[in-house]
Structures are given as structure tokens and as C-alpha cells.
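Deliverable D2.4 — example input (C-alpha cells):
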């Protein structure tokens, strides 16, 4: 059988929920409701690296976009994405179709349509700490996460175009049908 030359990029945790911050996993291992139909449609896949796991590890706390929006974390994202960009250039130069990138809405790193922000998330959990104040300051903001912003900039620099899609971190299975209609 001939290869069909259709490739999708997916955020790391769509294939491996174990990379997510502990307690926010909504499926057992791989998001089968999305991945199985995409396999049946004949796509090949590139699993993007998880920028948070590869910097803070599996025991990290959940954070907001401002905490990742530093020159150091952006450089880390660029380093991780460099071999991905090289693969995309090679594939597109050889007439493969890069059909899109599926990220994770709500994530401070991999959000596509929205991410989470709060300006007072920092410091230590001590006697002055107010969980209520911290949680009340959390906002859903219509921006990409840091990793996807860096990715988008690298795509532009390299004259590559990708359509972006997203599962919703809070309810991944509910967002699957919309993506499958498009792909
Ligand atoms: S959304 Fe991105 S940063 Fe968060 S666990 Fe998934 S791959 Fe890692």
C-alpha cells in the first residue's frame, strides 16, 4: 500500500495523559475518541514534546501562562520545536500534506483558542496564603499558550502554514467531534 502523505501534529498529552499535571487527567492513557478515528482516516502523526514535563517534571504544580512566559521558557520551547520545524520543512519540500496541529485549550503552554492567566500566582504557601484569592484571580483568556505562540512564530519565520485545532482540557471528549468534522 502506498503512503498517503497526510500528517497531523498533536500535543504530547493527547497520546500520553501521564504527562499532564497530576489530577487533571480526563482519560486513561491516550485520547482514544480522537486518535482512533484519525488513525482510521489514514493520518500519520507527529507527537509534539511536552514543554512542561521536560522542564518541571511529572510532579509539577499547575501554573498559569504568566509563570511560563519568561525568556528562559520560550528558549526552551524553541529548542524543543527546532527538530519539529526541520521535519515540517523536509515533509513539505517533498509534497507531504501537514494537515494541522491539535493543541489543548486551557493549557498555559498548549492552548490554541484560550489559555489560563492570573497576575498574582507566585510565592510560597505559608500562613498568609489565601487559596480563595488565588483561585478567584484565575482567568480564561483568548490567547495561545506560550509553547504554541513560540511554535506559531517559528512557523511564520520558516514560511510554513498550519491550521490549528484544539481539544478542551476540561472536557476533551466533548471537543472531539468538532475536530473530526474538520479533518
Ligand atoms: S497541554 Fe501541553 S504542556 Fe500540558 S501536558 Fe499537554 S503537552 Fe504538556
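Example output (designed residues):
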Amino acid at each position: 500500500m502506498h503512503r498517503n502523505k497526510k500528517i497531523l501534529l498533536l500535543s504530547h498529552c493527547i497520546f500520553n495523559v501521564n504527562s499532564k499535571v497530576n489530577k487533571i487527567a480526563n482519560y486513561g492513557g491516550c485520547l482514544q475518541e480522537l486518535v482512533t478515528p484519525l488513525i482510521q482516516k489514514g493520518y500519520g502523526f507527529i507527537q509534539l514534546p511536552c514543554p512542561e514535563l521536560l522542564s518541571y517534571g511529572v510532579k509539577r504544580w499547575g501554573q498559569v501562562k504568566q509563570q511560563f512566559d519568561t525568556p528562559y521558557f520560550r528558549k526552551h520551547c524553541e529548542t524543543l520545536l527546532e527538530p519539529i520545524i526541520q521535519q515540517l520543512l523536509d515533509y513539505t519540500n517533498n509534497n507531504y500534506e501537514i494537515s494541522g496541529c491539535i493543541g489543548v485549550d486551557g493549557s498555559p503552554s498548549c492552548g490554541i483558542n484560550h489559555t489560563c492567566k492570573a497576575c498574582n500566582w507566585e510565592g510560597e504557601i505559608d500562613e498568609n496564603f489565601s487559596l480563595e484569592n488565588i483561585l478567584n484571580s484565575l482567568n480564561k483568556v483568548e490567547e495561545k499558550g506560550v509553547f504554541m505562540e513560540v511554535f506559531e512564530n517559528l512557523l511564520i519565520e520558516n514560511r510554513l502554514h498550519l491550521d490549528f485545532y484544539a481539544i478542551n482540557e476540561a472536557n476533551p471528549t466533548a471537543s472531539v467531534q468538532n475536530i473530526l468534522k474538520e479533518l
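Strands lie at 6-10, 44-47, 97-105, 115-117, 139-141, 164-168.
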